[in-house]
Specification:
single chain, mainly alpha, 4% strand
Length: 97
């Protein structure tokens, strides 16, 4: 008998894991990580090659989650990128305590 996967179980939000960001169940890989790679030009197959412990179904679930929640995800990605830029600016200026 072929195992059936409930796709609703592939993406989870847990407050204690990666700040409550949506991630692939059983991993610390966020939907945001997958989307940033995808927007950088990686195909779902390329992403699986980059993270060989993920399945194509998990990557596709992350993409589906993104498209179903695109506005909220774009806001999260923009906030994350702004935080990274702020940390980089502090680092480059020597203001990291």
């Amino acid at each position: 008998m072929v195992a059936i996967v409930d796709i609703g179980s592939l993406i989870v939000r847990t407050p204690e894991v990666v700040g409550g960001r949506p991630c692939i169940a059983g991993t610390r890989i966020t939907v945001q990580n997958i989307i940033i790679d995808f927007q950088a030009g990686l195909s779902p197959q390329d992403i699986v090659a980059e993270y060989p412990y993920l399945s194509l179904a998990q990557v596709d679930a992350a993409l589906a989650y993104y498209y179903a929640n695109q506005e909220a995800m774009e806001q999260e990605i923009a906030q994350y990128q702004a935080e990274c830029q702020a940390w980089e600016t502090k680092w480059m200026s020597g203001n990291i305590a």
